[in-house]
Amino acid sequence: MTSRTRQDAFSYAILIVFLVAALLPFIGVVLTAFKDTGELAAGIFALPQQWRFDNFAEAWTGARFSTYFGSSLIVVIPVVVIATILSTMSGVAFGMFKFPGANALLLVILLGLMIPFEAVIIPLWQLMGNLGLRDTYWAVILPQIALSFSFGTFWMRAYFKNFPSEIIDAAVVDGCTTWGVVWRVLFPLSMPALLSLVVLLFMWTWNEFFLVLVMVTGDLRTLPVGLALLRGRYATDIPVMAAGSLLVSLPVIILYLFFQRSFIRGIISGAVKA
Amino acid sequence: MSAPAQHSRSWRPFGQRWQAYLLILPGVTLYALFVLVPIINTARYSFYDWTGFSEPTNPGLQNYAEMFRDPDFWRAIGNNAFFVIFYTLIPILLGLFLASILTRGRLRGMTIFRAGLFIPQVMSPVVVGIIWRWLFTLDGPINIFLESIGIQGRAWLGDFAWSRLAVGSVGSWVEYGLCMVLFIAGAQAIDEELYDAARAFGANRWQEFRYVLLPGLRQQILVAFVLTFIAALRVFDLVYVLTSGGPGKTTLVTSLLIYDEAFNRNRAGYASAIAVAIGVIILVVSGSVYWIQQRQAAEEEQ
User: Fold this and answer.
1) CB contact (8 A) between residue A241 and residue B134
2) Class of domain B62-296
3) What is the pLDDT of residues B229-272, one digit of tens each?
4) Which of A114, A210, B265, B270 is deepest in the core (most CB within 10 A)?
5) B160 to chain A nearest CA, in Å?
6) A103 vs chain B: nearest CA distance in angstroms?
7) What single string gives the DSSP state of each residue in B149-209?
């Protein structure tokens, strides 16, 4: 009994060391975001003399994070909404219908799960130029929907494939049409899977860097690119950079705290899991 | 067992094939336009001299020939391989070590550990890069700490000898939590009786690890391997923010090379060839792991 307790204590001690290592840099940034430059010498984990929000205001207006925040929303909202709808539709098709070519199509869609944007960026850049869409939000939104569709299809298909058929049979016996089944049975019951997909796509789109860096300039940049390309006096102002970093991460971190399980399951299933 | 149920589903009420095609049509159209066709075009452009502006000319294998002679390409590939040590090998070993020394059976409070250990995975790599760039500066927190224990600090990211190591260790920091979460969950699911049986046969700790834990974690190790390996091959944002490939080209990686060749040096044809090389490597690796998974699943069913 005592040896078991001692073993447990030892396990917890080790876990805590690694947990702290994962969190310390982030905690340092939170503290720094509330300090002024003069306080930095006191050390990264010294508490701020007073909790000031000046750095956030400075990042928001002076360093133009409000503009980038707007761009991020303009990109993320349509991507998440449209990609979720399209993936749910194809998830139903692949999970519940049997049709010729389904497996071949799935294999082709699987490509999108593995391929990085680097592999398609040059033709995409060319295509957007030809369409006159380069340096517009569309140049980010459309490819991002297309790539998200790939993950979303697999995610929703996995859900619908294991959907208990008794429920559907019962609905049909009650006189539901196919579309009635979709809207009144499948859709409400798939809310958890759908919500997970929404938060995952939100994170990936919010954090996307390469595509945005290549496709748009200036005010159209989203938060991560805006932060990375910050120049001038703010780029060396560590408290402002810390505040900016928090502004970029906070939306995802907050969602993550609420939907932890979805995030972890989603990230893990990003590894080929058809 | 579940086969009959699955069959019954295919006729009622979802019998109409055209409905299935209609459902996938919009998504597949976008996917074809913005993913599939570009993949094909990348492959096509890789066989041309092309600036990205003019008409592609001079079809042939010259881009690939140049790639194999280009020291920058090999340096970038070498750095990606070097980062595999930090993104994949170290986190997996760390995770295995942890899973092997932790208490068997349930530990309470795992939710909190899992939540915290996963934080680096959900943060934007740009933010991770900005944080570590600051931590690594000459008068930054890491050097302040090192000097307090009597070690002379340096500008780690700007140092020709140390920059790769510094960037790599940030990669380990990002990935180790993922491996630990996966392996601890996997280890806790291993039947306690297997350990008892091993001990009854007089197995020592190493043999327990080798014959109980390792086989029990096969699936989790594969998943961790694919995720971290692909992350090491794809890495862009983090390196872009930390060092932009510098100093010199000491931390150059393939994604940065593609970006630079295509968009700074107007050599879109050549950049396409590098993109094809990386795409093929990623496909081969994830394809083989997928194949191994399928075989394992088939074996387990028998």
Assistant:
1) yes
2) mainly alpha
3) 989 999 999 999 999 898 989 999 999 999 999 999 999 999 99
4) B270
5) 23
6) 13
7) TT-----GGG-TTTHHHHHHHHHHHHHHHHHHHHHHHHHHTS-HHHHHHHHHTT--HHHHI
